[in-house]
Amino acid sequence: MSGHDQLVFCLCELTRLLWKLLLPLLFLCLLLLAVLILLVLGVRLWLQSIRNARRERDGCPTVAFFHPYCNAGGGGERVLWCAIRALQNSYADVNVAVYTGDLGVTGQQILEGARRRFNIVLPRPVRFVFLRHRLLVEPSLFPHFTLLGQSVGSVFLGWEALTEFVPDLYVDSMGYAFTLPLFRYLGGCSVGSYVHYPTISTDMLSVVREMNPRFNNPDYVSNSLFLSAFKVVYYCVFALLYGMAGSCSDLIMVNSSWTLDHILSLWRAPNRTSVVYPPCDVSAFLDIPLDEDGDRKCHTVVSIGQFRPEKDHRLQIRAFKKIRAFKKVLDKRREGLRLVLIGGCRNQEDEERVLMLRGLCQELGVADRVEFKLNIPFQELKRELGEATIGLHTMWNEHFGIGVVECMAAGKVILAHKSGGPKLDIVVPFEGGQTGFLADDEESYTDAIERILALPPSARLQIRRNARQSVSRFSDQEFETCFLAAMEPLMGTLER
Question: 116 near 377, Cβ under 8 Å?
């Protein structure tokens, strides 16, 4: 037998062997697929039986909101409580539940916190489903591959929520998109989502591609071509998975034009997506008088926002220090200038961040001029805004900016970051008039504050008037109208 014949014989034998192995392997794959399908169907039937038993007991359907940090006191929580209030006022025959991981408090204490911080009182009781494993979505648990780790963790947390309570309609109000397919396909629920901020965005990809250091792109990654390339691939794969999970939603609400653009590019569901601006308690700030402030001896710059890394409080402190450092141009206004940082702390990590910010103030020599106000009640927030001249915001690509709207409603001259929601939706001309200022780095923030303080009191007053009039479109009433209109198709599917 020639060498050629031997080669042909070997190839034939190899092909025969592979074919013999392929058939059992194919059969095994089909068998496993069938078992998986039966398992999913079995779990779905089991969960539906639990839901049916609950409905017979309650006599009405239940809408459940997935909000593990519902006691945090931020803008997302204001959206949650306003949404629940709107549903309760409009649908007397529908119950509402909230999945929360706030184990250290009772449901009544959570509602009292909403009243104290946001001036929101619900017309009827809410059922709280307390989740024991919120740690699974804590970023501190995943120092690396944080997005993936938190997303996988949210699936397990979502499974705990689903097995604890099976709703008729599930709404993810905190951005855990990977829970949507879980509730839709295993729980058999209608699912909706209110997206404050996309978990991944094209802007995040651009930051990594351009090797720019940010709070979520540390120097050791941005300085390495290999690590940056690897992170781009990781982000692209994650964006694909995120888009697949988000597209499971029957209804998608987003909070700004910026978020809309990113969600449309990732979830690709334009017919199910609409903009619902978040509720801002505009009316609560209208009683703050709009008077000229030329006779003030001390001007205050106030910042409103949770103490999270992306809020970039460090930039605020550094810009404030730079203003104080202009010795040659300091006058009585600048000598009396102070910075007040108001915000909520969700956990120990936020509290440690505040300690670091206090240390930065000490290091820069401005500790005597910077005040921290943590988790303060609503009335104290109003008092601080009433005494302020400038409202300060420094978050890059803020999805919306409720704190920005509150400052404008209070009649403050707003200075916000030149990106995201503030740039596209909020700090925009009103009837041809200026409503505020935008900046994007330490230098431009410093210059803007100097320009604001140098304006004649009458010019500042006109900007403040324009700002207050322009934010009426972000009121609680506007939110409730738009939210209920968006929810109506899903609410109509609930069996009464």
Answer: yes
